[in-house]
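Supplementary notes for students who missed Thursday's class. We covered one full example, reproduced here. Read the sequence, then the structure, then the short commentary at the end.
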Amino acid sequence: MLSIVIPTLDAGDTLGATLAALGEAAFETEAIVADGGSRDATRAVAEGAGGRFVEAPRGRGTQLAAGAAAAVGEWLLFMHADTVLAVGWADAVGAFMADPANARRAAFFRLALDDAAPAARRLERLVGWRCRVLGLPYGDQGLLMSRAFHDELDGYSPWPLMEDVDMARRIGRRHLTALDAVAVTSAAAYRRGGYVRRPLRNLACLALYYLGVAPRLIERFYR
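Structure (token representation):
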């Protein structure tokens, strides 16, 4: 079984499409929505689509950890609630899970943004470079790993921010691979924050993380 863990906070507008795309899989799956206190229709959307709704303290790392604790699958896929896996994802994930060589490896999707703007294509190429050279996929690209490998790594750190970078670092670049499949992520945050300013802010957060600044302080800067 593949357990798909999705942290949410007022994600009712996007969660339905995220869950609908998971129906492509021919293998057994479960969707776990780890919610941090939504006040909208997130719970109704999750349960209406057959997902398991788990309440957790607010914070993406904490919610991911709670979702993983509730999961029963031998494989875990962590993804965001505004990301829709493109057609063909199940074949790529199934092939990865079936290969014994991947027992202690993790995989991520290629990022695509739902925006036709040239700036979106430039950002996608930048993300591809970051993953190839630095081995740093972010949470909006999903992360697939076996339950055993996840537990060996002690799971996600209970951080409000940078939990995805922390996990990628602990996995290590040699144990990360890109799937031949695409995760289409909402570009709404980039349209609001700007295709230059927002990536620069993310880069500043990354620099603060590598300098050893506490995640709670990085979150304050990020917000």
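Commentary. The first strand starts at residue 2 and ends at 8. DSSP finds ten helices and eight strands in the chain. If anything here is unclear, bring it to office hours.
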